[in-house]
Design a protein that fits this description.
A motif (Meso-diaminopimelate recognition motif) lies at residues 429-432. By secondary structure, this protein is α/β, with parallel strands linked by helices. The protein has 3 domains: 20-115, Udp-n-acetylmuramoylalanyl-d-glutamate--2,6- Diaminopimelate Ligase, Chain: A, domain 1; 120-349, UDP-N-acetylmuramoyl-L-alanine:D-glutamate ligase, CATH 3.40.1190.10; 359-511, Mur ligase, C-terminal domain (Protein-Tyrosine Phosphatase, Chain A, Alpha-Beta Complex), CATH 3.90.190.20. A 12-stranded mixed sheet has the order 1-11-10-9-12-8-13-14-15-16-17-18, with helices on both faces. Strands 19-20-24-21-22-23 form a 6-stranded mixed sheet, sandwiched between helices.
């Protein structure tokens, strides 16, 4: 069922496209122009989403070539196809005019930018990359701008939304953390139509390798951290780092903001090809902006930062050093796009929580928290943070690992959970095409036989959450980790409705454990 409070999803393309001539596109892409100078009004990779007047991009894939859908693209109104030599004949047979280039994936981004009138050049853009923290930072930046009355938008894991200059909210349906380049430039063009001033975007390592973010030169890019993840795609941590480093080159950013709490960040600060400002939460770190003192306040914290202009105090609405780092990153990004001063500090402090990120579902007598932590490092941060919250007795974690993703991190996640929690309930995350039992077994393989934690394995995420609630007592904290604000669970080829927050809240209510919870609006 759709949420009546959310805006109806809109297309990832402007209402009034600027368009471009096929001959001009051919010159820009270094391709032979078609015989007729057609006008292109949109760009897409998906033959099912072709609209009349589109340039359809037929790319080679791991198992098949997109050109096999040329007839479908033609029937839906494509006027031109962009492809490589291996896809040219099928497109020609379908009657499509052609632009043939050696690397159509890279060329797609340039074509999309040109057709949409290079929208990224006409609004302020912020790009955030890192293993953890991308969603938190971009969300806090956007919520702060909303509070200041600026028209702002965000593109990322939790979806694509923006507020126009009239104060109306909009949503655009997207699938990936960083959309494919035709969607991305279409989204930016639509934001520009509605006079959005600042667009904040999560930039994944996949996107940088696969040219999804090409032709966007961010006004400022931010690096939060790097820890093991996505090695199924990158192969090594070195390749993973190199993918992130690309964002800090003149082709992608004018300047950078880099967290130097880890060695990867320190290395990036040295190797970045654009000017960078550094920040750190370790008080003895060498950085332009250093957190000197953190004071826990309820479920958040107030902290002092020393920078080039002296000391200042900021507030994070979420607990833990990593959210202190995210709040500081947001403040530095806002300053980089011209938003600074006491009103910004106040708005930043009131920016609120981030859906699915250390989200408080219940306060007492049992504290319930849902977090997106799906790497060993993120899980360690979440558990360490919750252990330090005043009044915590036993710490219970419900966790698992996603299928069809980096398998090497599964044992490490199990080890972290058993080392830092009192009770571990190993269950299913998004199994996708894998056998859930095999994933659980891999997670459990990292838990030493000598662990002091009580360990359970439960088939079915709902049943695991219910078990955690039955095992909890007054002043215990339950962390449901891995899926955050996701509202579906991918099992096989089907996405089943499933929201950790609703399941945990319902289980606690049935158990009589919601107490003085006043967080119903923080979904």
């Amino acid at each position: 069922m759709s949420d009546p409070h959310l805006p109806t999803p809109e297309p990832a393309r402007p209402r009034r496209p600027l368009g471009a001539g096929a001959a001009a596109l051919a010159v820009a892409l270094g391709a032979e122009p078609p015989s007729a100078d057609l006008t292109v009004t949109g760009v897409t990779l998906d033959s099912r989403s072709v609209a009349p007047g589109d340039l359809w991009c037929a790319l080679p894939g791991a198992n098949a070539h997109g050109a096999q859908f040329a007839a479908q693209a033609r029937d839906r109104g494509a006027v031109l196809a962009l492809t490589d030599p291996s896809g040219a004949e099928r497109c020609r047979e379908a009657g499509l005019a052609l632009l043939v280039v050696p690397d159509p994936r890279e060329a797609t981004a340039l074509a999309a930018a040109l057709v949409q009138g290079r929208p990224a050049e006409r609004l302020a853009t912020i790009g955030v990359t890192g293993t953890n923290g991308k969603t938190s930072v971009t969300t806090v930046v956007t919520r702060t701008l909303d509070a200041l009355g600026d028209a702002a938008g965000v593109i990322g894991t939790s979806g694509t939304t923006y507020r126009d200059e009239r104060g109306s909210d909009h949503a655009i349906a997207t699938v990936r953390t960083t959309p494919e380049s035709p969607e991305l430039h279409g989204i930016l063009a639509r934001m520009l139509e509605d006079r959005v001033q600042v667009a904040s975007m999560e930039v994944s390592s996949h996107a940088l390798v696969l040219h999804r973010a090409d032709e966007v030169v961010f006004d400022v890019a931010c690096f939060t951290n790097l820890s093991q993840d996505h090695l199924d795609f990158h192969g090594t941590m070195e390749a993973y780092f190199e993918a992130k480093r690309v964002l800090f080159t003149p082709a992608h950013a004018a300047r950078g903001i880099v967290c130097v709490d880890d060695e990867w960040g320190r290395r990036l600060a040295r190797e970045a090809e654009v000017p960078v400002v550094t920040y750190a939460t370790a008080p003895d770190a060498e950085a332009d902006h250093v957190v000197r003192e953190i004071v826990a306040e309820g479920y958040g914290s107030t902290f002092t930062v020393e920078g080039p202009q002296g000391r200042r105090t900021l507030h994070s609405g979420l607990p833990g050093r990593h959210y202190v780092a995210n709040t500081l990153a947001a403040e530095l990004l806002l300053a980089a796009v011209g938003r600074r001063g006491p009103e910004v500090t106040r708005a930043l402090a009131e920016a609120g929580t981030v859906p699915g990120r250390m989200e408080l579902v219940a306060r007492s007598p049992i504290r319930g928290v849902v977090d997106y932590s799906h790497t060993a490092d993120a899980l360690a941060q979440a558990l360490t943070t919750l252990r330090a919250v005043p009044g915590t007795r036993h710490l219970i974690v419900v966790m698992g690992a996603g299928g069809d993703r980096d398998r090497s991190k599964r044992p490490a996640m199990g080890e972290v959970a058993a080392r830092l929690a009192d009770v571990v309930v190993v269950t299913d995350d998004n199994p996708r095409s894998e056998d859930p039992a095999e994933i659980r077994r891999a997670v459990r393989s990292g838990i030493p036989a000598t662990t002091n934690a009580q360990v359970h394995e439960v088939d079915g995420r709902g049943a695991a959450i219910e078990l955690a609630v039955r095992l909890a007592d007054v002043s215990d904290t339950i962390l449901v980790a891995g899926k955050g604000a996701e509202t579906g669970q991918q099992i096989g080829g089907i996405v089943h409705p499933f929201d950790d927050r609703l399941r945990l809240r319902d289980a606690l209510a049935a158990h009589g454990g919601t107490g003085d919870d006043d967080t119903d609006g923080e979904r």
